[in-house]
Amino acid sequence: MNILTAREFIAxxxxxxxxxxxxxxxxxxxxxxxxxxxxxxxxxxxxxxxxDIMGVDLYGKRRRFANDNxxxxxxxxxxxxx
Length: 82
Hints:
Elements: H1 6-11, H2 16-28, H3 37-54, H4 69-81
């Protein structure tokens, strides 16, 4: 089983999130192949290594929505009340 190293993935411009997507696909058995748990685990470890090198948090959650309309609506409501 030949897997690219973290440095090779970085050199070709593949993000850690894309590598994790490949690992998820391998683990679930998408694309008409049987699930390959061992290969998925190896790819996931490479993705974590890429994330460490690049300084990316793979498991971080988005703190708030990119477009939070609730703040705009409440500001407009407060303006009308004043």
